[in-house]
Design a protein that fits this description.
With 108 residues, this protein is mainly beta. It has one helix at residues 10-18; strands at 7-8, 27-34, 40-47, 54-58, 61-65, 77-83, 86-92, 98-99, 105-107. The chain is built from one helix and nine strands. The strands form two sheets. The protein has a six-stranded mixed sheet with strand order 4-5-2-3-9-8, with helices on one face. Strands 1-6-7 form a three-stranded mixed sheet.
């Protein structure tokens, strides 16, 4: 099966530029870990890129994904959303069969 890397929206890269991530030597790390109310959960944080990371670049910014998390994020979209409840990075993952209301936990 072909593993397509996630897509990162312009809005997500723009938000990283607004907070000066690259200026601090940081990238947006998107990882998948076991746990959460649906079996898996997203871990989204600013971190330094590591040697084995997939690096997605745009607008002078980087989004990094470790090799363990990558298969769980095949063809997903990483976006930035501003809503009444707050602003946050969001993952639209076509591989998730269900997710919980918090948007950080999912199952496959």
């Amino acid at each position: 099966m072909l593993t397509l890397p996630p897509n990162v929206t312009d809005r997500a890269f723009e938000r990283l530029a607004e907070i000066g991530a690259a200026d601090q030597g940081k990238a947006l790390r998107v990882a998948v870990e076991g746990g959460g109310c649906s079996g898996f959960q997203y871990e989204i944080d600013l971190d330094e890129p590591k040697d084995d990371d997939l690096i997605l670049e745009g607008a002078g910014q980087k989004v990094v994904i470790d090799s363990i998390s990558l298969p769980f994020l095949t063809d997903a979209t990483i976006d930035f959303s501003e809503e009444l409840i707050g602003a946050r990075f969001v993952i639209n993952n076509p591989n998730a069969t269900s997710s919980c209301g918090c948007g950080t936990s999912f199952s496959m």
